[in-house]
Predict the structure.
Amino acid sequence: MLPPRAESVHSARSYAAGSLMGWRMADLVEDMELVVSELATNALRHGLVLDPQNRRRGTAEPIRMSMIRRDSLVTCVFADPGSAAPVMRDPSPLEPGGMGLHIVESMSLRWGWNPLLPFGKVVWAVLKS
């Protein structure tokens, strides 16, 4: 579980790196840390907002992170209480940010999201060693 604080992004990166090192997949650490940073930041920034449809305040539900390994594939998963779909934007060159999902897409084999019932979503990315 990740508390709604900026330090949680560092904790998520550390968890990912430690998991990969334990699985002897050091070659994935740098790429996974970058993907995890983007997904954790998005979950904290966009997944903890008031949802007008179900009137739940996101901060009542935690953000959860998981890492799943299957052979040479590793999937990182973030679950948050927000219901809005992740949107890949095309920010202006002077805009500070907005490239996170482009980074995730370029670093991963696949990425995507799925709604959770009764509320929330999971956003995931798969990397290969």
Notes: The chain has three helices and six strands. The longest strand covers residues 73-80. The radius of gyration is 14 Å.
